[in-house]
Amino acid sequence: MILVIGDIIVDEFVWGDVSRISPEAPVPVVEVERIDRRLGGSANVVQNLYALKEPAAMIGVVGNDEPGKWIRHNLEQMHTDVSGIITKLDGRPTGVKTRVIARHQQVVRYDHEWKQPISPETRTKLEQAVLSLLPEAQAVILSDYGKGVLSPDFIAWLIVHMQGKTIAIDPKPEHTAAYAHATVITPNLHEASAMAGMAAINEDGHVEDIARRLHGTLDLQLVLITRSEKGMTLYDGSTCHHIPTAARDVFDVTGAGDTVIAVFTACLARGDAPLVAAQHANRAAGVVVGKVGTATASWDEILGH
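RESULT FIELD:
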């Protein structure tokens, strides 16, 4: 089982068409055809693990509202252990990101969320859930979207209590110091450069320097940097491996980072070498960016069966 801890979000998509400009302002008028929802944030990591047939448990916070109930129901439908999801009764809403898409192009996104840190009482409940579920976990994913669940001191507490497990982190630059002593971080190039205090130059030599700096500064085992059209770079402490992109068509990068960390961690948990794990994660990313909206990749799609 893989334990996923982080910010739970609903990804909502409003699909439609545009044929005219509004007479009220120079903006397109979207004629809505349908609306759908998908699990987002750390819940999308769980959804990606489910696509890989990898058992998972979710730890996080939702609001006492309809989107929170929807999330819990959908995770339960995927046989996810939801005992670590805390429902807040203080007015904190479940995070919802709504994207308006017309003719396969995102027109606008609007977010309904609460970014304030969780209360000490809520953190205590999350810690209790972690300690209860940790003995069954082969690996742990911290999915940090900067929405208040993973504060720096909570991250540090988690890493201390998870030593001996594979600890993979999808990071936020503002929490960089807290990620020390994890197994691996999986930032994109922009995040990695900010974390290292270096320019975001997408050239192999420069990315190698960023990876080495992060590896040494944070005492990590691995650094996996996603580089958009240039694929990924994996640094294992001695060698930088540059992995060319597997994407043929890029329609939407929404949630691709969730796919990368889910596949990479699942591979490490089953004993794959880091380079093999990164190659599988790279192929999975190539699959999901070719789909519109938050998506997942199955093993058949990853392996090309």
